[in-house]
């Protein structure tokens, strides 16, 4: 029974799974929290040892370790076996994800120390989007400044978008190479991706995961002029503005709660702020659907995934209402059926296959880890 150990390391937590490669299922799944707090696990090394020795024990056959890394910058277009040089490059692009990459590196270093005899692989949230064409990833700003500071669209949730696009093709029984797909990853964070022939050609998140759709606490798209205006008129500094747009905006900013279930509940009671938030949320999604259909030159499949996308039929139906002229239709019965499997929500024979495909980032990381190890030169 070979297994891949999946590590998602945060600044004070380590999420982990041990995935069995025969069944694709986790045999162990857990999280160590409050690392560094008094009376808790002192550091990531100690946390990693606790997981491997106390929780997992010796009854294991780990063939590789897959690490989730948020930002690969311009360096990584696929999952990459970790060497000291790879660690250095992940560190180099930390300026692009100052909260995430250093935390990911803590996990990488602790796991490499604890499991020195197996290959470790970095799987980047940005990698899938490295196929974006220049016109999609370039911001229209001074070229020299953009180059010097690595300013461009990178995109995120790549592991999820890649997995979901692949599973959608598999579900449809068609080669992904033939398909034009829009994936809507609607969770706490949210992003839309246009996938042609299995490759990401545009995505709604940008230099950072702040751009694009309305999220739990993030604003998504906004005129950068808002930042200058608030700087000048409200006297807010950069950290306050960062906090405002990343942590106090989106559904939370509009309604006081960042959880879509509560927003929806308030909306159904006629709460005006919640109704407006739902309308803005929906408006933004439709904006991207329209844009991506134009970029893809048509659409074969529209796929919902993540917390909201997988679980909320009413919001899916509302988001797509009135798009029948684009071939996008939702079958009410299919849409209301709760299930943990990939499924159609469009009616039989509709021009666009509208699907729900549960995401599984850990499984995709495991698969990419195995593939990266298999591609290593023998010996
Ligand atoms: P993350 O982006 O943190 O990985 P998930 O994809 O797990 O998040 O999505 C979590 C979010 O999904 C929660 O914040 C919650 O608002 C939302 N969610 C989960 N189930 C439902 C539901 N049935 N209806 C609406 N929203 C839901």
Overview of the molecule:
The protein is of the alpha/beta class and 379 residues long. The protein has 2 domains: 2-124, Nucleotidyltransferase, domain 5, CATH 3.30.420.40; 175-361, 2-Layer Sandwich (Nucleotidyltransferase, domain 5), CATH 3.30.420. It contains 15 helices and 12 strands. The longest helix has 25 residues, at 272-296. The chain starts with a strand and ends in a 5-residue tail after the last helix. The mean pLDDT is 96. The structure holds adenosine-5'-diphosphate. Adenosine-5'-diphosphate binds at residues 187-189, 216, 259-261, 306-308, 311-312.
Descriptive keywords:
379 residues; alpha/beta; Nucleotidyltransferase, domain 5; 2 domains; six-stranded mixed beta sheet; 40% helix; binds adenosine-5'-diphosphate
What about the largest sheet? 6 strands, mixed
| Euclidean distance between termini CA atoms | 22 Å
Runs with pLDDT <50, length 5+?
Answer: none
State the domain count: 2
What small molecules are bound in this structure?
A: adenosine-5'-diphosphate
Helical proportion? 40-55%
CATH class of the largest domain: Alpha Beta
Listing every helix as H and every strand as E from the N terminus to the C terminus, the arrangement reads EEEHEEHHEHHHEEEHHHHHEHHHEEH
Oligomeric form: single chain
Q: Tell me the CATH topology of the largest domain.
A: Nucleotidyltransferase, domain 5
Q: What is the overall shape?
A: globular
What is the residue-averaged pLDDT? 96
Q: State the fourth-level CATH superfamily of the largest domain.
A: ATPase, nucleotide binding domain
Write down how many β-strands occur, each being a DSSP E stretch of 2 or more residues. 12
Major sheet strand order: 3-2-1-4-6-5
